[in-house]
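Feature request disguised as a bug report, sorry. It would help if multi-protein outputs had a clear separator. Right now it looks like this:
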Amino acid sequence: MAATPAPPEAPPKPTWDPRRPEPPFPWLRPTIRIRLTLLYGGMFLIAGILLLSIIYLLAANALNVGSDLPFKVVTGTVSSESCNITSTQLPAADLNHALNECVNEQRQHALDNLLSRSLLALLGLAIIAFAFGYAMAGRVLSPLGRITRTARAVAGSDLSRRIELDGPDDELKELADTFDDMLERLQRAFTAQQRFVGNASHELRTPLAINRTLLEVHLSDPGAPVELQQLGKTLLATNERSEQLVEGLLLLARSDNQIVERKPVDLAEVAEQAVDQVHAEAEAKGVEIRGARQSAVVQGNGVLLERIALNLVQNAVRYNVQEDGWVEVTTEVQHGQAVLVVSNTGPVVPAYEIDNLFEPFKRLRGADRTGSDKGVGLGLSIVRSVARAHGGHIYAQPREGGGLVMRVTLPI
């Protein structure tokens, strides 16, 4: 047996979702660092306000604002420029009242001055506290940034990267060590998967290549009957399509559900080919295939996209009504996406059973749609996997009166 070919490595995947728009102000994103900074600064600001309030109340209590003077002027003259008291002779009662108002005004002025200066000092300290909190939060969260960078590298299929975080044995180091252990297990599993794909590729290609060689030898015989020649050509075409499908599926598995080589593929042509392949089966069941197919070019793998259309059309024909059934296959471009819609008449499918249709080997309870003589229950699972590999989606919806509407959207 020939040596097992080494499976190609998957290309790096983007670490962002291209369908998700960038925020207009990335620096306003509520990151953990920003939230910790606001927490630290807010706690300092609240503590400063409480401290300032206590100092203000204690100072006001010590100055006895609003109380009378602890002495009385009996005789004599008093003058004050700040309180606008002249040295003219005044009655003792008026003089004491003027002195009380003067002293209380000075006390209030001192408290106001203390409050304004304290607020300015508090504002300056709050700015320093927020800056210090931002710096400290960055230092505390730096291991998380290292973990994030490693995770992004792993998302690009670089499973050999490790965090290897140094420092104290705290919660962050425990998280980093756990992440490293998980990456080790993922790398082993991914390596085993690549080895399996390589072996499967060799084992599947070999019998198909042998069949192709035998058919080509028989077809090269000029003395073979016409019927055998026609049968041989049909089998050779079927074998070729099987080889292409195996190559496409193995390519999908090797690339970790991402299409590596993309070429322009018209969904209208893909749908036409699927309809042509199912046409004989539809005529035998009395099912009419109709629908307008407009050009809708996408970038992808033609063999896998043809498998999407073929599986959907085959299901629509096989799980149909006994008489006057129809299948409608349409393609078009809507809102910048290529759309393939396959709808059909058929048995009533409950809405709550729709999700089960896309699960491998799942069958509807009591529905003829998943009878054992009509498939193995993998068709729609393959359709969903291929659609996701192309960055698209598939939606299923029950038709009123029976049947389903399958809608596949693919980015152009």
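(second protein starts here, but nothing in the output says so)
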Amino acid sequence: MTQRINYIQQSPELFKKLLDLSNQLKESAIEESIRDLVSIRASQINGCAFCVDMHVKEARIHGERELRLHHVAIWRESTLFAPRERAALAWTEALTKLAGHGVADDIYERVRTQFSEKELSDLTYEVMAINAWNRANVAFRTVPGSADKAFGLDKANLS
């Protein structure tokens, strides 16, 4: 598949605003490892090859274990994730695949046992941001790995 258009070049001001949001989220109350898991899981759900590729590489650079990366897609059955990570993954799925009735109370209550109000708010913005990136990259078929050098992802030594 070839890329359709380069949305970064076509809308540089809007790209910068979304990038600013993503960069601001690095300073949020949510730890890096959970942000990585959230980005990978939402990208898997949305079928965003560019973002799965990017966030797996980022997670490896951040020290994530390879087996856990393979288990993100099966996190419910896996024993490799802590309750806080499981809550974040459940929240990610609930917000990425919004049901007609919204987010179920049981999911919200489970997440609230693991996250403060501030953390839950920050986590929600994290999910919102990755979903925005997924939609742009899926729409325009951004080629996986095409921005590795620009984002320093070649350091992951994954090819």
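Even a blank line would do. Unrelated, but nice: The radius of gyration is 16 Å.
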